[in-house]
C-alpha cells in the first residue's frame, strides 16, 4: 500500500522517541436505540418507534503492535474487560490519529476494527491472538492478571505484584484488536502537504489504493 | 476544579516540548436517521420509522488555546469550512485525549462542544471569538484565508502566500470551539495511578467535582 512507505519512514525518523509507537484510537460510541413516546394509531393499535441515540465518543492512547503478516491490518493489544470492547462490537468503525512529534506528520487511519478474544471461533484468529500475546513483554502480559480497568480502588490499596508464567498462553482478559485501513489522511506540517489515500472496492473485493493531493 | 492543578503541572513539566499543547479531539460522528422500509398498517395507512445510523468517528490533532476566562472551558481554533464543524453541530459531545510524552500522563476530557463562528447571535461569544483571534499569531490567522481544507489540489499548484492585516478582526472561516469538561479521566503511567473526576449536577446547576481513584 502506498501509505505504508510514508508510515515506515515516519516510524524510522521518530524511532528514538519511546512514544513514537503511541497513537490515539477512537471507537464509535454506543448507539442505543431510544424508544419514542408511545404513539397510538387511529385503529387503536399502538406502536413504538425508536431513534438512535448516540453515547459519547471515546478516545484513548494505545500502542502500535505492528502489522498483521501479509496485510495492512494494524494490531493493538487491549483488555477484554475495558469499555471499548463493548463499544467496538456494537459499531466496529474506528479511527487512529497518529502524530509524529519529531517529523510533524499526522496519519489519520480509519477502518473496520476486529475484536479477537478467546471466544473467537476462527482458528486462524486465535492463532494471531496467541502470536501477538507472545510478542508482547512478560511485564505487559501480567497487566491482564490485575484488576479490571476503571474499577474504584481504596486509597490504601496496594497494587499487588502478579507473576505470570512466561510460557503460558493468552489469559481470558487479553484481547487483540486489528484495524483494517480503508482511508488514510496524511498531513506533513513541515512541508504543508496533505495526501488522501482511499481503498477502492470492486464487487466484493478491495483491491487498490487511490491517492489524491488535497489542501492541508 | 481539582483536575486543573494536575493539568497545569503536566503542562509545566512538558513545557519544553513544542507538542505539549497538542491533543487529539474526537467529535461524535454524524447521526443521520435512516428510514426503515415503508411499513403498511392494517388500516391501509403507511408509516415510515427511522433508525439512527452512525457515520464514522473522527479524530484529529489540534492545539490547546488556553482556558476561557473564569471557567474551565478549553479553547480550540478551527476552520469553519472543515468537516468537523457540521459533525459537532449535529452532535456536540466530544472528547479530548491529551498525552504528555515526557511525564507519561494522559488526560481524557469529555464534555459539550460549543461552535462559535461569525454567525453567533450572542455578543459575549462573538467577543470571545475576537479575543481568541487576536491571541493567535498572524501566521496562523493567515491560514484561514487559504483554500478550504481537504479540497483536491493539482500537483503543480503552489501554495499562495496570503497576507493578512494584523489589525483586522476574525475572518469568516475562523471558528472558535470551546469544550466544557464534564468528566476527566487522568492516568499517570509512571506511578500507575488513575483518577476519575466527574462534575456533579444538582438541578440545573453544575457545581462540584467528585474525584475517585480507580484501577488503571
Describe the overall structure:
2 copies of one chain form a homodimer. The first copy, chain A, has a domain at 2-29 and 55-117 and 174-214: Electron Transport, Fmn-binding Protein, Chain A (Pnp Oxidase, Chain A, Roll). The radius of gyration of chain A is 21 Å and the shape is globular. The model of chain A is unreliable at 30-42 and 47-54 (pLDDT under 50). Chain A is an alpha+beta fold and 216 residues long. Helices cover 18% and strands 40% of the residues of chain A. The longest helix of chain A is centred in the middle third of the chain and has 13 residues, at 123-135. In chain A, strands 1, 6, 7, 8, 9, 10, 11 and 12 form an 8-stranded antiparallel sheet that branches. Chain A starts with a helix and ends with a strand. The first copy, chain A, is built from 4 helices and 12 strands; from the N terminus they run H-E-E-E-E-E-E-E-H-E-E-H-H-E-E-E. Chains A and B meet through strand 1, strand 5, strand 6, strand 8 and strand 9 of A and strand 1, strand 5, strand 6, strand 8 and strand 9 of B. Chains A, B: One of its GO terms (biological process) is pyridoxine biosynthetic process. Chains A, B: Keywords: Flavoprotein, FMN, Oxidoreductase. Chains A, B: Its EC number is 1.4.3.5. Chains A, B: This is pyridoxal 5'-phosphate synthase.
Characteristic terms for this protein:
homodimer; about 220 residues; alpha+beta; Pnp Oxidase, Chain A; 8-stranded antiparallel sheet; 4 helices; EC 1.4.3.5 (chains A, B); Pyridox_Oxase (chains A, B)
Amino acid at each position: 500500500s502506498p501509505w505504508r512507505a510514508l508510515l515506515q519512514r515516519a516510524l524510522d525518523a521518530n524511532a528514538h522517541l519511546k512514544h513514537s509507537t503511541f497513537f490515539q484510537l477512537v471507537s464509535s460510541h454506543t448507539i442505543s436505540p431510544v424508544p419514542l413516546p408511545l404513539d397510538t394509531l387511529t385503529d387503536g393499535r399502538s406502536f413504538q418507534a425508536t431513534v438512535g441515540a448516540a453515547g459519547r465518543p471515546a478516545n484513548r492512547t494505545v500502542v502500535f503492535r505492528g502489522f498483521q503478516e501479509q496485510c495492512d491490518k494494524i494490531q493493538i493489544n487491549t483488555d477484554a474487560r475495558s469499555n471499548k470492547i463493548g463499544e467496538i462490537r456494537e459499531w466496529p468503525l474506528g479511527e487512529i490519529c497518529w502524530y509524529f512529534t519529531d517529523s510533524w506528520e499526522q496519519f489519520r487511519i480509519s477502518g473496520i476494527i476486529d475484536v479477537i478474544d478467546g471466544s473467537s471461533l476462527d482458528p486462524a484468529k486465535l492463532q494471531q491472538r496467541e502470536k501477538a500475546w507472545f510478542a508482547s513483554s512478560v511485564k505487559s502480559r501480567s497487566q491482564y492478571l490485575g484488576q479490571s480497568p476503571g474499577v474504584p480502588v481504596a486509597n490504601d490499596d496496594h497494587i499487588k505484584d502478579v507473576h505470570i508464567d512466561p510460557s503460558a498462553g493468552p489469559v481470558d482478559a487479553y484481547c487483540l484488536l486489528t484495524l483494517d485501513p480503508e482511508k488514510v489522511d496524511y498531513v506533513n506540517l513541515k512541508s504543508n502537504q496533505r495526501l488522501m489515500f482511499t481503498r477502492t472496492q470492486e464487487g466484493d473485493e478491495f483491491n487498490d489504493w487511490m491517492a489524491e493531493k488535497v489542501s492541508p
